[in-house]
Amino acid sequence: MSAERWKEDEVLLESLRKGSPGAVDEMLRLYQGKIFNLAMSILKNESDAEEAAQDVFMTVIRKADTFQGNSAFYSWMYRICVNTCLMRLRGKRRTDTVSIEEFMPVFTDEGMHASPMDDWSKEVERNALNEELGRMIRKYTEELSEKYRVVFVLSDVEGLSNEETAKILGLTVPAVKSRLHRARLYLREQLSRYLREGKAS
Amino acid sequence: MNCKELAYMLADYIDGSMDPQLREELDAHIAMCEPCMIFTKTFLVASDKTRQLRKEIEYKIPPEVRSRLETFVRAAALKFPEKVNEYREQVERERREKVLRHGDLEMDVERHRVTAAGREVHLTPIEFKILQAFLEAPERAFSRDQLLTAIYPNHEAAVVDRTIDVHVGKLRAKLGDDPSRPRYIATVRGVGYKLI
After folding, report:
1. A172 within 8 A of A163, measured Cβ to Cβ
2. Is the pTM for the entire model greater than 0.90?
3. Chain B 9-38, CB below 8 Å of chain A: which residues?
4. pLDDT of A109-152, one tens digit each?
5. According to the model, what pLDDT value does residue B24 have?
């Protein structure tokens, strides 16, 4: 995380604690988009995400005084957001998710790749497909169960380190790494299938 | 080193935490194994693309949500918890006042009332929840397990999912539905049930 962000966080936390005018606006400016995105990626529903975001900001305002400062402010905020969203998800009907196993690479008994590989890296490197690819990646992410989805969003979309993601989710670093790797393997396979179909049609 | 080991070691390979000797072995394998070369290449491209397209992948906050959220948080920051409770009540009220409709079926969730073609139907809480699940997602085919989840959100596998058939059977009877020629609830073979 950039030094600039650390500094902004510190100033923000201080002014929230003091109840300075403008503190809330500053918090919204810095984090509204991020919190909404994180809530959406867990809840996948706009009105749920909106309510969750309200809860998150309320909790942050209320607890700014008691925040210990032993983790970064933004990671504390993300943790509140993840917990708020997971609470909301509990007791709710889950939307259908795919089984990640079906997208893991398949090997022969000798540990060789069982099917031929298609090299689509050049196609993707051209930027012409970007808009479509962004949409597809989001769609594939949504189809993952939240166990993988949240890790993937925090690490690869939000750009947090494995250590930060682990802290936010209350997981060990190896657990984060393994979920993230499986999510990436899944994405690679989904994109392969997608690009292969695109060629066939 | 084989392809399978390689695929699962890629995580360490990428984040630089891999032992240098192992890294050499991995590079040597990639250099002589075409599938692994392609696999690694496409794997890296997929991850790079995700980072590059972060802005496209993120959910944008719609302007109306942004302004509602700002108003709420500002107001609430000034004098919570009154504002929060007020808001909660409003959300709760809206939820309670919900009336679900589909064809000639009508469900008033708050008053726990259901009518089919204008005729009132008395349902048990379980039958009510099943019908509510159908009405909230009229296009969707529900598996027995999904219907169980609608009734008992935290159910464990211990509940036999065929018990749902009994509840659906009673619900159909009350709605005057004939399973062989249903008007309201259809059986989806191999899946479960859906609303017609």
Report:
1. no
2. no
3. 10-11, 15, 34-36, 38
4. 999 999 889 999 888 888 888 888 999 999 999 999 888 999 99
5. 92
Q: At A14, is the pLDDT very low, low, confident or very high (cuts 50, 70, 90)?
A: confident
Interface test with B, best of A15, A16, A36, A56 (most B CBs within 10 A): A36
Which residue, of A60, A89, A118, is where some domain finishes?
A89
Domain ranges in chain B are: 3-57, 63-95, 98-195
ipTM for this model: 0.86
User: Can you give the residue range of the structural domain that contains A152?
Assistant: 100-200
Lateral strand order in the sheet of B141-143? B141-143, B192-195, B185-188
Q: Which one of B1, B3, B72 would you mutate to disrupt binding with A, by most A Cβ within 10 Å of its Cβ?
A: B3
* A94, part of any domain: no
Q: How far is B80 from chain A (nearest CA, A)?
A: 8
CA dist., res. A74 & res. A91, Å (int): 28
Preferred mutation among A40, A156, A165 to probe B, highest tally of B CBs within 10 A: A156
Q: What is the mean pLDDT of residues B179-186?
A: 87
Q: Considering only CB atoms, which chain A residues are within 8 Å of B42?
A: 117-121, 124, 188, 191-192
Is the Cβ of B143 closer than 8 Å to some Cβ of chain A?
no
Nearest chain A residue to B129 by CA: give it.
A93
